[in-house]
Amino acid sequence: MRYNKLGRTGLFVSELCLGAMTFGGGEGIWEHIGAVQQQEADDLIRRAFDGGINFIDTADVYSDGLSEQITGQALKNLGLKRDEVVVATKVFGQTGQGVNSRGASRYHIMEAAKASLKRMQLDHIDLYQIHGFDPATPIEETLDALDTLVAQGHVRYIGISNWAAWQITKALGISERLDLARFVSLQAYYTIAGRDLERELVPMLQSEGLGLLVWSPLAGGLLSGKYGRDGKTGADGRRAGFAFPPVDHDRGLAVIDAMRPLAEARGVSVAQIAIAWLLHRPVVTSVIIGARREDQLADNIAAASVSLTADEMKQLDEVSRLPPEYPGWMFDRQGEYRQTQLEQAAPRLGR
């Protein structure tokens, strides 16, 4: 297991992060995602940390707060040292019936942080993330509330999830102008079958020095290895009842076709190849893996040991490449000469 710096911070997190979205269960989407209970969660977290994972991610809306509760209790049951565990959770979704029990307002953030700490039996949250963009709340208000939590010691670092590049850069500018705590990471959907964030978000992350935490690396189970062109496999998988996130089906199947021989040649699963592809992307800080069973978790952890050659990465990149869109294709055309100059000058500049 390798450990990467989280953005510009001095905090190191494992390249794989245990996602607790499967903890709890319940009605609605939660019955399709997972219903891992306390003893099973204890076993999964123990297996994860024995495998070198020091990072766990949850959210206050997962199973209506039960995921946080189970996570916190598991840390206590296992006797894990607090300074050896990086705990991340999120705020934004509806957590009550009140009109203000949602969003990224100061009102909701302060109340939600207090509730999350109580459920997890912790005195601080290592990474507190805004789960989505709130069009009703000024970014200044959100940042000011998060800055207060950092100043009070209840939160160590702050991040966002599912924001657009322009929203993040605006927030970073506000933080600098008002001297407020700065977002250090983005949690976003990224997979070899869904590379949309490479258009705007990846260049922004690299420019501004934010870490990238990847959710749904297997495209909601599509890349688990259960699915194929026959349409029969995967009938009992999660996507059969909850087809999320949306995926270009033809491109997804083409990617599976390309990964399967690589997996067979190594004696590993298709899922491991999909995760390994992400771990080979320089922009990725940590890949969030979720599991209902220990064997699933062990398979995902093993992906950290899978090495792909440059030729194999090129092959997978080609089959999964996004179609060109404006202004990207214009950047490539107009910037080609200058990029060539930069590459030729790099050795002389000591790069």
Structural overview:
With 351 residues, this protein is α/β, with parallel strands linked by helices. The chain has two domains: 3-320, TIM Barrel; 324-351. The protein contains twelve helices and ten strands. The protein has helices at residues 30-33, 38-50, 66-78, 106-120, 139-152, 165-178, 201-208, 249-266, 270-279, 294-301, 310-320, 328-345, and strands spanning 3-5, 12-14, 16-19, 55-57, 86-91, 125-130, 155-161, 183-189, 211-215, 286-289. The strands form two sheets. Strands 3-4-5-6-7-8-9-10 form an eight-stranded parallel barrel, surrounded by six helices. A hairpin with a 6-residue loop joins β1 (3-5) and β2 (12-14). The radius of gyration is 20 Å and the shape is globular. 42% of the residues are buried.
